[in-house]
Amino acid sequence: VAFFGWTWDSFDFFTVSLTIKDLAAEFHKSNTDITWGITLVLMLRSVGSVIFGIASDRYGRKWPFIVNNILFIILELATGFCQDYKQFLAIRALFGIAVGGLYGNAAATALEDCPEEARGIMSGILQQGYSFGYLLSTAFARGLVDTTSHGWRPLFWFGACPPVLIILFRLCLPETEAFRERKKARKSSGSVASVFISEGKVALKRHWLLLIYMVLLMTGFNFMVGGVG
């Protein structure tokens, strides 16, 4: 379920990249103007990662993941019904928050109950969901864009459909065991909020150097991917 969630996060992100010329013609803007829709998504991903990261650690992996996918449905449909450039930018900005919220939760869902010996290969498999999403978006763009009288819009309308199945898939699965154990430990230690804050402080204090390294590493990877795109 984490793999498919991450895959569709990618699919929805690349729908704009694959329809830039069509969007520019629709809204009477240049291709560069349309790419601001992509820039806004990338700028607000960090906001989404913080919001949904905190929600995931406080309330569990299940319901924030489901809410995240509900937002995908709403915002992809809304993009498909945009009537002007300002609406497009506003909706894609909100979409950036949803995009940023998905991966951390998906990774925790997939990996925290996974045996430590298998986490390396399983995290690699999970990460490939992003490439798979791009392949799917390319294939469906060929089949849905400019093949009907609605032009580019069917690609976005279709993008809103599979998250329904992903939500149903997640509803059938329990909360992760690791989170349930952590929740019990927090309750026995007093205030859930105070324990949550203290855990965050300890994590930053002990692992701040590793955190900086990972930020720089992922910045490099995203720079290479964005450059090729």
UniProtKB/TrEMBL annotation:
The chain crosses the membrane at residues 34-56, 63-81, 87-108, 120-143, 155-173, 208-228. Residues 1-229 form the Major facilitator superfamily (MFS) profile domain. SUPFAM superfamilies: MFS general substrate transporter (SSF103473). GO terms for biological process: plasma membrane lactate transport. Signal peptide: none annotated. Keywords: Membrane, Transmembrane, Transmembrane helix. GO terms for molecular function: secondary active monocarboxylate transmembrane transporter activity. It is a multi-pass membrane protein. It is found in: Membrane. Its main location: membrane. GO terms for cellular component: plasma membrane. InterPro entries: MFS_dom (IPR020846), MFS_sugar_transport-like (IPR005828), MFS_trans_sf (IPR036259). This is Major facilitator superfamily (MFS) profile domain-containing protein. It comes from Trichoglossum hirsutum.
